[in-house]
Here is the input.
Amino acid sequence: MHDVGSGGTSASMELRAAQVRDMYARLLQGELSGTDALAASQQMLQILMDSMANAVFWKDLNSCYMGCNKVFARFAGVEPNLLVGMSDRDMPWADSQAFSADWFIDWDKHVIETGEPAFGIIEQLRSAAGEERWLQTNKVPLCDLDGRVIGVLGTFEDITNRRRAEEELQRTLDELDERVQQRTAQLVLANESLRREVEDRVRLQAEERLQRAYAEALRDTAAAMTSTLDLDEVLRQVVTGVERVVSADLIAVVLVDADGEIRNANHRASFGYGEVRHERLEGLYSQLSILRRLGVDEGPIIIDEPMDALGAARSTLGARISVADQLMGFLFVESAVHGFYTASHAERLGAVADQAGAAVSNARLARTATEVAAAEERQRLAHELHDAVNQTLWTSALTAESLLRELGDDDPIRERVDRLHRLSRGALSEMRALLLELRPDDLTEVGLDELINYLISALECRRTLQLRVDLANVQLDQDAHHTFYRVAQEALRNVTQHAEATSVEVRLTDGPVVELCVVDDGRGFDVEQVPSGHLGVAIMRERADSIGARLSLDSRVGGGTVVRLVYRRPEGLP
Here is the structure.
């Protein structure tokens, strides 16, 4: 049994539905006309709009509301008939920070101006009740019977609950992901700890085995180091010998000259030790804590937690390499385990260092003897070339020059004599350059501009070129002097062998910044496609790096080549 209220409401709804059906039937049958038909149509439209679950609204070209359904009216807090003529600037959401009235009006303008619908606009609206609601809005152009856009028709669905559910789901997923990451990190730490524990146990077991094999290994090491006179091979054998008697994550041997400057080095690190520093030789080892200590103490020396090391060292051990109180270098090892090295390790490393001293001394003596013999042979060859070939070339050039003065301009052999003269002078320049190669010490005694002129004269005899030469009288220290000469030599050699050029320009300018520039108009090449060892590029760059200069190479196919060496003099030097 229904109550009165429910029955009344049901009866009222049935009556209202019957009236709508009757009105719709009369409208279709043409029984209504004029203002009655218009009123009936408007009433039917409003009934349809009010029956929709989503909000519906329509605006004119100025974004002023022309109508809406009850859902929209509840959001706006205005009766549908009072909404007509109002705009979003009159609505509760007009002054919203993120989605103000201008936001909604701009979308209206976009749809009206483009004539294209906009679907799925996600926006936030403050309702008349003061609630911030998330909406998914669709807007389409509103057109008259002739297809002209006269406004915009819009609908929106309240998606606040769905959006909140999505946000809650995302928060849950984020929390779950964070927990997984934390657990993964804990497992990684546990695995790392276990790995280190296993490695430490393996290292300790290896140390015990090394102690038993110490005497035999020391004997074999001595034999291996003294079996060769090649200094680089001696260094490798020293490192290998240390591997057999001292457990280490990194082993290094460093040799110094009579002035204490580092000249040779070799090191070897175990897999997994971490990043090992690789810098210029003179700057790398001089910073190490163990070498600074060995420079003032006899050693062997143990340092735990060193401030500077080649790798991630927590313990280091080092010893001097010397013969008869003459310091020849240092031998040191590093470990990633704190307090790893003991007096027993120091004794073993010291024994290897003593053996290394004898082997290094022998290798240096052998190298010195070889260098002396080579120098003597170069001197002998230079004297022979100077006394024989050089004099012959000079005589040939002088004879050709004399013949040129005697021959008339129209003499048929004048061109060949002139060619002979240029070839002789070029060969003489090449011979001078060759003599300097045989006597390297003389390179610094000849001015840089004169040396480069020798190279240019030799180039001129081999190629018919237009030459533009501007060489300043530049004074440099020995290393820079040699570098500029070698780079010029390599650049001009490339012109001769590869460029196929018709003109070459060579400039040498002086000042706080010294610059050498060799320019040719040859066939050029693609700098990016040249192998690292081709055209001597790698050698030129290494020479430039050795003095802190900058070498640039600019070339393109068919566009010639520019080689430029720029060197800034050290402050305080002329």
Remarks:
- The longest helix spans residues 343-406.
- Residues 1-46 form one domain.
